[in-house]
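Sample pair:
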Amino acid sequence: MRQSPALWFVALEATERFYARHFRQPGDVSASAESEQLERDAGLLLDEMRAIARELELSEALFAARGAGERMDVEGPAEEAAEDALIGLAHAVELVRYGGAQLHNLASLLGGVAAQEAVKLATQIFVPLDNVYVVNGIAGVAAAFRI
């Protein structure tokens, strides 16, 4: 699974759309229907990622060839093809596993970044971030994008 902040931006935008459509975070399900619902959520989230990629005019080649209704535990050539894709079901599964939780270490990091940007605005010495700032806590990288 690739760890580029740009790819996670697409994935996080997909979670926002998922929330707008289903009124819950992907992966935020009751324990009784957990495994089947998690698989469905991951497929739906991957479909949202593909839709965002089309809107941003990104290539479909970025994605693994699996979507809603397809199993998460596929092994063999299909799994290897998915690994070659830049973004795919592995990203969706990670966001579904996360289930809308808020991590205190990332919250404190983003609070520090926001404070730094406030100081930049108040002092008018440095140029503040423009538009989108994505932090990837898995790989420990961050990037700013102008969308």
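The radius of gyration is 17 Å.
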